[in-house]
Amino acid sequence: MLIGAFKGANGGWTTSNVSQLVHQPYIQAYRESIEISGVTALLGGAIGLALAYAAIRDGTPRWIRSLLTTFSGVAANFGGIPLAFAFIATIGTIGIATQFMHNQLHLNVWQGADLFTKTGVEIVYLYFQIPLMVLVIAPAIDGLRREWREAASNLGANAWQFWRHIGLPVLMPSVLGALILLFGNAFAAYATAYSLTNGNVYIVPVVIGAYYTGNVFNNPHLGQALALGMFVVLVAMMLLYIPLQRRAARWAK
Amino acid sequence: MPYLELQGLERDFGTVKALDGIDISLGEGEFLSLLGPSGCGKTTALRLVAGFDRPDAGTIVVDGKDVTRVAPNKRDMGMVFQAYSLFPNMTARQNVEFGLRVRGQDKPDRRKRVDDLLELVGLAHAGDRYPHQLSGGMQQRVALARALAIEPRVLLLDEPLSALDAKVRVQLREEIRRIQLELGITTLYVTHDQEEALSVSDHVAVMYRGRIEQMGAPAEMYSAPATPFVAEFIGTMNRLEGTVVDPGAGTVDTGGRTITVEAARGKPRGARVLVLVRPETVQVAAANGAGGNTLTGEVLTHTFLGPVTRLRILSGEASLIADMPTARAAALPPGSKVDASLPSDEARLLDLTEEALPEIGEEPGPADR
Ligand SMILES: Nc1ncnc2c1ncn2[C@@H]1O[C@H](COP(=O)(O)OP(=O)(O)OP(=O)(O)O)[C@@H](O)[C@H]1O
Ligand SMILES: [Mg+2]
């Protein structure tokens, strides 16, 4: 990939592939990719964390937890064309739920067309981002000892104070790690977005796909340059992550 | 007037009756130990007092006010847990400070108070360490300081020493008592270690199967156990089943051997009784057939306990334990034929009920660890 990115169509060395990346339309594709990945990682992370906590804390029946983790295990691996199709069939323009709302409830809040835009892609991505968060964060939530919550409450803290001073800081290293994972997960996703929007949402993997399969025109070297760019973005994320992680975990062994 | 009262506390977990009517009343500044084997309901009782759990019946009164339904963060109780309860993301100092911080106390006041408390528990030098940088004993000291920081109305400790090694355990229990006396704080202390309970408490309550078997001063619990369970649980006790032969003379037939027990006088003839004898009151000598209030048997084993040696003696069906000075025990090695004479006036007697006697191991420990 590294070598391919610097080769021209005629086989000679060139930096033109790479230098194109910072210009339109590619820079826009990176922006969209980063935005979709960032938004779905943060939203999916927050919702997944809340769900996992609700299912795991004392007082929740055990079967709820098993149900949630089993479902998450399935959903986190559900992606690509089948997932896109499932969404189109339920909340697409002529999806079951859309039709039902329209014809039976006479509600016109959701027309279904938004499913094929960036917002739609984000909604569909959340469908695997949330379960993935549930799966990766569950062990960390298990690690929150009952004694900490009880000691905090014993000392006069309310639930919010416990979360602010103990619960979240203790989970933070794991949460940061999980967010990176979610970001990468969305950043690399291709089939779901492509099959959902038919390539209309312009994210990097879709563009790369186009250059490889020759939909637009066949230029694998530009595709390799785009992939190299993705790699650079991920490295940048890691560089951001490492000091944050170190700070969050400074109290740990 | 009692300061802390538990009245008729009951708590069921499904079919398990964890607490079956607990009544305790404790004066201000007193130290009560809840002592009992694993699963008897000690932790359950303490959690009810702390407010982490609600009773199915009964009330908890502190200083004349019913707090049964008060939320735990409004109760002003200081709790020390068994282990690993320090907030891992905070230093020792921040842990101790936490209760004051959520109460909105000023920073300079807080600093002063935290310094004093760390000093009190002997950790003035370790305030900036994180919990994982502290030994188990130090962690428990910090936990104690943290609980004391809020000047709680009642201090609750749930087996705070059980995760520590023996030496630290003894040292720290004495320190807990010293601090408790110094601050005059009403304290409820849970333990399954009878020695610990007897050595530091004003009162001891022995629990068994969700009930209090007996409550009293440590010396009283040792010298005058009220039930077979307490007799067995506190200290080591020989138990001889027998039948009253002659109420006038106070004689009891223990499996073919007749011995005299003062306490048997006036009991109904033929009553089934349990004769209780402390090992240190049994006199052992080489067998000489002299009769008297003795059981004849053979030494099975020696257990060296420092100044005393514990002899296990088999006499007919019965097995008997006797403690004697180590210096003299050497003369009676395992295999020796001996006479074990029982003190007729120091032996205690309990009516033997139909209920099966509990079997207790040497060191009842929590099974759920
Ligand atoms: N949350 C719970 N759910 C179900 N059963 C429980 C619960 N808490 C306690 N029990 C049961 O209630 C009984 C008393 O438990 P408890 O923890 O109070 O015992 P304990 O005296 O503290 O024992 P240990 O010395 O082992 O700590 C036990 O049989 C235990 O299994
Ligand atoms: Mg317990």
Polypeptide structure, described:
The complex is a heterodimer of chains A (about 250) and B (about 375). Helix content of chain A is about 70%, strand content about 0%. Chain A is mainly α. Chain A has a single domain, classed as MetI-like (MetI-like fold), CATH 1.10.3720. The radius of gyration of chain A is 22 Å and the shape is flat. The mean pLDDT of chain A is about 80. Chain B has about 375 residues and is α+β, with helices and mostly antiparallel strands. Chain B has a 6-stranded mixed sheet, sandwiched between helices. In chain B, strands 13-12-11-14-20 form a 5-stranded antiparallel sheet. In chain B, helix 3 crosses helix 4. Chain B is elongated, with a radius of gyration of 24 Å. Classes of the chains: A mainly alpha (about 250), B alpha+beta (about 375). Chains A and B meet through helix 7 and helix 8 of A and strand 6, helix 2 and helix 4 of B. The structure holds adenosine-5'-triphosphate and magnesium ion. Magnesium ion binds next to helix 1 of chain B.
